[in-house]
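for the record, two folds in this file. i put them one after another cuz i was lazy. first one right below, seq on top, structure tokens after. the second one comes after a little note so u can tell where it starts
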Amino acid sequence: MLEDLKSIGQVTEALDVVERTVRNIELKGDVLYMPELLRVNGDLLLTNSAHHEEAEERFLQSIDMSRVQGALGWQIRAANDLAELMVANRRFDDARNLLQPLFNQFAEGAETAELKRARLLLTS
């Protein structure tokens, strides 16, 4: 739903949905999906260059929460998004330092879309 809203230019509405959902999750204490929600929030914030620092913070929060939960898949996904932002800002070393340790945790030969994306970013 959030990606659909973003694709039709309803970013503000999508951000409102994210904020309401985050509040509900915090009230209920069921934080299982919070890392992905934070990552999506960061992605939505990237649509406005004035919010790139806030987007970076959301990606970092997502990575940290994913690490705590042991959700390596969500961790690499958020790290990929953050690394793309870093590469766009010519912070190549930061992107590599973020991604390489995560990438190394996956079994050799794993070929998920997120690992392919990470591999591509690591060669940037």
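(here's the note) second protein begins now
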Amino acid sequence: MNVHLFLDINFKIVIFIKKEDMMARRKSVKKRNKIIESAAKLFAQNGYFCTSMSEIANRAEMSVGSLYVYFKSKDDLLIEIFKNYFDELMGNVEKIFTETEQHPLDKLFDGLNLVVNTLSNDKDMAKVFLVELRQSNKALESIAPEIRDKYENLIKNLIDEAKEKDLVKKNIDPELIGLSTFGLIESILFDWINKGYTKEKLLMKLERAANYFIQGIRK
């Protein structure tokens, strides 16, 4: 009886500890997300260089010491913001390219539209991506090439598929198409941020530019 009681008590203690660990992990994730959201807004509003770690901590409602437990520097925070955001975005683009039964060039249009539409729903993130990312050499060297390469590889694979099916002009360079469409997205979003016109106008400009581009490579 005593043995069973001892085991039962230990089992309950283990369950209690596991629940405590789960609650602590959830709380940690919530704090981390709040830091990322706070930093993105401050970077967009004040600029990367003009934003301090203490300002980020204040907006996230925590001490500076607690902030440094999660992120060692502004560079690390900026890199984390982009890695999380663009990993999800590129995953959604990849689904369009690989899981839908459409003409490859229709997939290309839908992918371009998804990227611009997603960024236009979060103007703070768009500003950080187009302007503030360039203020951090560490972020530029570590994350920007990764984002660009991942995107351009998705486009390259799609255009390779179109070439195999004889749906685009034979002299088309898939790598150049990836580079060109990345530049198209940057240019359209940068113009939108600088001139401040509506999202509807932004998407209309994208549609015209993307259709013009796609017609130029379609066979």
